Amino acid sequence: MLATKQKVLRRFWYATLPIHKLEDGPKPFTLLGENIVLFLDREGAPAALRDRCCHRTAKLSKGWRNDGNITCGYHGWTYDRTGQLVRIPQFPADTPLPNARVPSFRCEERYGYAWVVLDEPLLPIPDMPEDRDAKYRRIHQFDDRWNCGALRMMENSFDNAHFSFVHRATFGQEDRPKPEKYELVETDYGFRAETIVPINNPPEAYRVTGTSDPVTTRHMRNAWFMPFCRTLDIEYPSGLRHIIFNSATPIDDGSIQLVQILFRNDREEDCSTKELIDWDAVIIAEDREILESTDPDAVVDVDRKVEMHMPSDRPGLIMRKRLAALLAEHGEREVPR
Asked: How many CB atoms are located within 10 Å of the residue 2 CB?
C-alpha cells in the first residue's frame, strides 16, 4: 500500500517531532507527502500549518517564532496557530489586513511529541495509561527517518518468526526457528496480541531484564492501533515491564519517521536510561537493516497473492485485511505501484 495515495490515512493521528525540538524555533516536517511546519504557540502548545507563506510561497519553516505566532523569513508576514494572517510589517498600523490564511492542521501534544492529523480524525491518539501511572518512567528513545514502508514496520513488530534470525546476535534463539503462537483479539482500533517467548539473556541485558539467567522469557501483551502505531509490552519473570510505543509516521511512500518511547516500572538507579537506550538500539539496528532492504509497498489486497505467507504471519494478514476494509469503507481502492 502506497500511503500517500490513500486519502483515508490522512484521518489518523501521527507522532512527528519531540516538543523539545521546537523550543528553538519552527521546524519543517513531511507527513504523507504534505509539507508542514511545526511551532509552539504562546502557551507552548504545538501548532501545524502548511509550510508555505501565502505571499510569495516561501517556506514558513525558514522563519521564526514571534510571540506565539510564526513569522515568514522572506517579508515578515506573520500568522497565528490557526494560519490566520495577523501582521504585514510593510502596512501602516491603521491599514486593514487582507483576509488571508495558511491551511492549518489539528496538532496536540502527547507523550512529549507533537501529534498531527491532516483531516477529520477517525480515531483518537492511542492511549498509554502508563503515562499517567507514577510507577512508570517515560524515556524518549529516538525519532529517526527509516527507508521502509509504515506497514512493513507494523508487520515486523508482531512477527515472532524473525527473532531467531534477525536478532540471533542479541536475544534470538537460532535453534528455535518455530515461532510461538499469538493469541489475538480484534478490537475497534486494531487488535491485542499475547504470547510468551523464550529469549537469550546476555550479560549486557541483565539489568534490562532484571535477571542474570542466561535464558529467560518475555510475556508479551502487544497491541496494534490502526494504521501505524503499536505497543510492545514485555513483562519479564522478574516483574519488570518494558513497554515500547512506536509510531511509524509515513513521510512518503518509501520512508517513515519512526518514533520510539519507552515506559519502565523501575528507577534510574535500577537500570539507567543509557543502558536501556543502548540495549534497545542494538536490537533496533538489526530490525532497521532488514526492513530497509524490503519493498516498502506492502499490498493490503491479500487476494492478489503478491507475497507468500506462513501461518505465523497471521497478525500481518489481519493488518492487511483490516486496512483493505478501511479503504473499501471509505470508497477507496488500493493504488498499487
From this structure: 20
Place of cell 489475538: 184
Phi-psi region of 305 (alpha: psi -120 to 50; beta: other; left: phi over 0): left
Topology at the third CATH level for domain 129-328: Naphthalene 1,2-dioxygenase Alpha Subunit; Chain A, domain 1 (3.90.380)
Query: What span, in angstroms and rounded, lies between the C-alpha atoms of 174 and 164?
Result: 4
Residue 97 has pLDDT above 90, yes or no: no
Considering only the top CATH level, what class is 22-117? mainly beta
Q: pLDDT digits over 204-233, tens only?
A: 999 999 999 999 999 999 999 999 999 999
Query: Strands (DSSP E) along the chain, which ranges?
Result: 14-18, 27-31, 34-40, 46-50, 64-66, 69-71, 78-79, 85-87, 104-110, 113-117, 137-146, 183-186, 190-200, 215-225, 229-235, 241-250, 256-264
Q: How is residue 124 annotated by DSSP? A: P
Decide: 191 and 225 in contact? Cβ < 8 Å: no
Where are the chain's structural domains? 22-117, 129-328
Q: How many residues does the chain have?
A: 337
Q: What is the mean pLDDT of the chain?
A: 94
3-state secondary structure of 283: helix
pLDDT the model gives residue 175: 82
Torsion angle defined by CA atoms of residues 141, 146, 149 and 153, in that order, rounded to the nearest 10 degrees? -30
Distances (CA, A) of 58 to 72, 104, 111, 185: 7, 16, 31, 48
- Name the nearest CA neighbour of 234 among 204, 267, 272, 197: 197
139: three-class secondary structure by DSSP: strand
Give the CA angle between residues 231, 179, 289 to the nearest 5°: 65
Mean pLDDT check: name the lowest of 21-30, 90-99, 104-113. Answer: 90-99
- H helix and E strand count, the chain: 5, 17
Which residue's entry shows cell 518475555? Answer: 218
- CA distances to 155, 164, 166, 168, 217 from 178, in Å: 17, 9, 14, 14, 15
